[in-house]
Input
Amino acid sequence: MPETTRTQVVIVGAGPAGLMISQMLANRGVDSVAIDIRSREEIENTHRAGILEAQAVQMLDDEKVSDRYRTEGYEHEGTDIRVNGVSNRINFKELVGATVWLYPQTDVFIDLANARERDGGDVRFGVSDVKVLDEYSDTPGVSFVDADGNQQEVRGDFLVGSDGSRSICRFLIPEEGRHQYFREYPFAWFGIMCEAPMSYDELIYATSAKGFALISQRTESVQRMYLQCNPSDDMHSWSEDQLWSEFQARLEGPDGFQLKTGPIFERTLLPFRSFVQEPMQHGRIVLAGDAAHTVPPTGARGLNLALSDARALATRLAEAAKANDVSKLDGYQEAALKRIWRAQNFSYWMTTMLHSLPDENPYDYKRRLGELEMVLGHKSGRTHLAEAYSGWPNEEDGL
Ligand code: DHB
Output
């Protein structure tokens, strides 16, 4: 016989979206159990994006997660968009009164996992053999084998699918009404982590005839950088010298910019995909984060979107759970999808504007430069970019 647990909300997927929802529910007096097939160490050691919009860090404060970002993160008032070696600073603070924080997703996860532990939250990592039970009943749940090998069953009044881009929960939305919108791109990023000092005090998004490069950061001595590549390129076999000269070539300019380099200790290939599934709710089942949508990494919207889903969902879900009333979830999808499609557009736009297509002809290239000039050369263009990059206001959540 499995050990059974009764809770109010079952959360499948304990990454940033699932844990933030669990934390926000707890702060509103609602119990949840969150499960994840990955171990805590595995999630902590997966390198993901690094930029949080101001409203995302605000959630870390408001929901009493942690204020570690203030001491270990870096507040950025702008970013640099470098076009063929010419720098264009986008001053978020001046243009839209906002800043962003360089604070990696792994740290957000660590803070959330610690906060749930501190507050007595029920989070089970490293589970296996997960099956969703009675998803269309009044008591949906999951069965699984826990990290100690014991068979478990958890039932709740609602079930949240926050199980990431390889979600099983998204298939709980009945097929008749389910729409999946999808796009692939003919390039990828090759990401590295290296031991080197910062080359610049903000991020550099660099586009050149040789392709795109992003110079990001982690700490004073560890840096994160990405190179546009062909998804089939085997850059794992490139020497460090080859990688550094490719980075430098994409950054080179009349200002003599010189990238600071050092030993590379991690290499990853990141695919470029855009995906949205609608609807995000069916009865007592709701989706949040990558389970419902993914964006290509340019512009760092993924984690921010997952957290804004949590924000749009948790208050409504807490009300729904307290009253055991599904109608209290009304408005979640509408609010979330509005932001999601905006972010889809922003990520797509940043991606296509900054990357060269493998078959880019001289016309395409010159048109792209025209677009960049239109955006970067005018205050209205820079403002549009700054507003999207630093996050749209909370009122958009419709609460
Ligand atoms: C990082 C990743 C991004 O996709 C981005 O747009 C900015 C920063 C990062 O990993 O630091």
In short: The pocket of 3,4-dihydroxybenzoic acid is lined by residues 49-51, 203, 214, 216, 224, 297-300 (CB under 6 Å). The chain has eleven helices and 21 strands. The two ends are 43 Å apart (CA to CA). The CA atoms of residues 46 and 106 lie 7 Å apart.
